[in-house]
């Protein structure tokens, strides 16, 4: 079963949340609001700043990171960014070559990276010590990216002036009491329950994007943005081409299957093909020119007869 997600739909919502958190942190508004709710009037300006002219460091310059950079520049911030993938800067954003360089230069650091073995605890005790004294850390990416204990220590010691965290290494399965974290009651620390993409607009777009991906998978076999399935796509067959069909095959990811598939197709004109694998499952797509229904039946029966074949579809 091919399961799809929507990696782009909530990008704007997350970027806007980060901008809001930058302003809230720079003015210590979280602490002031809590004090007022407790009946404490505490009008202070010490340690409160405008964000104009400050430097935002973005770690992970993908769909969210680039939108965040554009929004940050619109309110007068300087933007630097770091990513392991070569990318083009948007607006006046400036690439820096190392993570430590970004951490040392930035007044605010915002994380937008995926959860991988390389990003686990990528912000730990050393990285926090490299950050400017009085700077701020924002994590709206994945909970495993930041060493929470080390972050709490940096906040309590005063090395960091504040933090905003929306994701956690372990998160509750349902709404309600019982949330525990070393970050609770740390000074100038905004804690939110993984709501970066929780807006009406983002949820609507998620529905539209996932529905479109499922429709395309059914109609053309494309599996781009599948989370549990090999990702393949081929350009569409022109509607005027009545002699080309698309063979879509899911099979066990074992040696020799591609050889068998290509042997079956060897007597036909294969216009284009692609294959990918993920874990124990492999996915094969090929556009083949045929002359009649008998050739279609021959191809279909040959592929479905393979011991390693799981499911085969013929698309027109």
Structure commentary:
There is one protein chain. By secondary structure, the protein is α/β, with parallel strands linked by helices. The chain has helices at 11-26, 29-37, 63-74, 99-105, 125-130, 148-157, 200-220, 257-265, 293-304, and strands at residues 55-59, 78-82, 94-95, 108-111, 135-139, 160-165, 189-191, 244-252, 269-278, 281-289, 309-315. The protein is 32% helix and 21% strand. The strands form 2 sheets. Strands 3-2-1-4-5-6-7 form a 7-stranded parallel beta sheet, with helices on both faces. Strands 9-10-8-11 form a 4-stranded antiparallel beta sheet, with helices on one face. The longest helix has 21 residues, at 200-220. The protein starts with 10 loop residues before the first helix and ends with a strand.
Low-confidence stretches: none
Radius of gyration computed on alpha carbons = 25 Å
Describe the biggest sheet? 7 strands, parallel
Oligomer: single chain
Mean pLDDT: 96
Order of helices and strands: HHEHEEHEHEHEEHEHEEHE
Helix fraction by DSSP (H/I, runs of at least 4): 25-40%
Question: How many helices in DSSP terms?
Answer: 9
Say how many strands there are: 11
Sheet with most strands: strand arrangement = 3-2-1-4-5-6-7
How much of the sequence is in beta strands? 15-25%
Question: How would you describe the shape?
Answer: elongated
In angstroms, what separates the terminal alpha carbons? 22 Å
**What structural category characterises the helix and strand content?**
alpha/beta
